[in-house]
């Protein structure tokens, strides 16, 4: 038995230790790794009617991946322009949502973490309670706010900002707002957590030496909060890129989210292998993107877990 | 001393809600002085320092630095640098970046900063350690980096909030003389906060003794030690034996106190109370352990005390003798080790005498240990 395992069992006892270990293994292997592996397996198989599954035609193929890049065989275009466009638009939009989220949440997290008093607990509650409402309802509520005759348009037109209602939905503003709002807690809390442990004296020391607030944040707070920022950004990015409800409900009619394509493949086309391939591509690309950015910003994997 | 920048506190009050943390403080600190605020934990020392550095606006009164009223001037605009109780080094910056952070703010080039950092590192005997992170240094080294970082900002006044409290005893004693050295070399005003009277006495030109938001006494170390203003100052600074009683007779600058348990004893009235003590007043008489000398057992008189020896301690340079007088009155006496053979007197009575000039009489008041 390796040393860390023995220590683990010594600390927790054999009984409790085995139960906890078993649960964690079941969780990671049974609920995460195996289903993902079966998806991976799907993505390399042709879409066959049930009787032919396991038959001579059921051979591994790259067909499904080729489809994303080149489109249907003998199609009119050289590339699958429609799906690829949706793909990179989704990634870019997810990045933008993440950045927007960060800019919004960093000040909130900083304020929550560095201020004392009862009102802070109330503020935190006000952030949390809306999340008791389920995702679909929240998305529809935003639709009502951003709709053509919605609250926001009534206000803006009434105040004379616009002559005619502005189509927030067709312009994807409702979508970005919805995605941004959906994950603010996942951005705020990791950052809050880190900043809360930042010694106030460090901020005061910097201030004492004449630093402006921008410099204090740039040189003292942000470097310290980097693990929290990375962890928040990673989660928000992954979840935005993989979101389905918000794009379904808040997305403009002409702009699809990549997850909607995946959903169509699974559901409307009953083409599970194709859907699986799309999902795998999305997952792998997101992971690679995150890893690349982590390298650029010199963040360690261990920091993310903080 | 050199013409440094002085600091004045004028009728300074600081309140937190109903709580008065500093009550009507009036202090004049000369430019170039090493000035200490000495008092027990929670007496308002840090609060005063924060008011001087600008992190806290006084509720009333003024802080003057170099004669200029600092009202409304933020901490980043004051000619002070504060060394925090926990140092507050930036953990993610290298030592040299930490030290020259104030230059970075002013826009100095990396090369200039590096050069200055190396000079300061030489000064604090950390040559070549600039590329380490603070966490890679020992406690004493971090301490010195914090000092260098503050000095790099070229402040007129350096404020130090119990900077040695985290160090072990030996290092603390070493850093005392080091700090004093640095202060002499740079010639700027140091305002030093401590609850350790040894630190305050050894390092400072002048000391303010504080108790619960009130400044009891300001003076140089000798004055504070030999001529305390209040019972609190007498009992907080150094060790002291207290004899409670009432004034029996006032004779010029001296007083006869009829003590509760040790008979009538004579003492010198502390200089700020001369003329203020009257017959019948409650009084306290303070005699330091080292002010006693052995006398023939049983000698009677107004500067003799007889008591039972309960415990003896040999400390090398002195013998500490703990005694119990009538009614459980406890005393500590320190006799210098002059090579005399000292046989155990445990359980035996012993008579001590003192020079009346070395006993101080004060109006009864709160003691530090109470
Ligand atoms: N921001 C504050 N709010 C309320 N009370 C405070 C605050 N800062 C300090 N105090 C109180 O003021 C008193 C003096 O504190 P402080 O100056 O830190 O003491 P010291 O440094 O002498 O140990 C303490 O009783 C402390 O509880
Ligand atoms: Mg303090």
TrEMBL record, chain A:
Keywords, ordered alphabetically: Cell membrane, Membrane, Transmembrane, Transmembrane helix, Transport
TM ranges are: 12-34, 86-110, 122-146, 173-195, 228-250, 276-297
Entry superkingdom: Bacteria
Q: Which locations, inside or outside the cell, does it occupy? A: Cell membrane
Q: Which Pfam families match?
A: BPD_transp_1
Q: Which family does it belong to?
A: Belongs to the binding-protein-dependent transport system permease family. CysTW subfamily.
Main location (coarse class):
membrane
Q: Which GO terms describe its cellular component?
A: plasma membrane
Xref: Gene3D superfamilies = MetI-like (1.10.3720.10)
Is Ribonucleoprotein among this UniProt entry's keywords?
no
Q: Which GO terms describe its biological process?
A: transmembrane transport
Q: Spell out the protein name for this chain.
A: ABC transporter permease
Q: Where is the ABC transmembrane type-1 domain?
A: 87-293
Per the record, membrane topology reads: Multi-pass membrane protein
Automatic annotation (TrEMBL), chain B:
Name residues in a coiled coil: none
Q: Which PROSITE patterns match?
A: ABC_TRANSPORTER_1, ABC_TRANSPORTER_2
Q: Which UniProt keywords apply?
A: ATP-binding, Nucleotide-binding, Transport
- SUPFAM superfamilies this protein is in? MOP-like (SSF50331), P-loop containing nucleoside triphosphate hydrolases (SSF52540)
| GO MF terms held by the record | ATP binding; ATP hydrolysis activity; transmembrane transporter activity
Q: Which domain of life, per UniProt?
A: Bacteria
Q: One biological process GO term for this chain?
A: quaternary ammonium group transport
Q: Where is it found, in Gene Ontology cellular component terms?
A: ATP-binding cassette (ABC) transporter complex
Domain (ABC transporter) ranges: 7-237
SMART domains listed in its UniProt record: AAA
- What Gene3D superfamilies does this protein's entry cite? 2.40.50.100, P-loop containing nucleotide triphosphate hydrolases
The UniProt record lists the keyword Transcription regulation: no
Q: What is this protein called?
A: ABC transporter ATP-binding protein
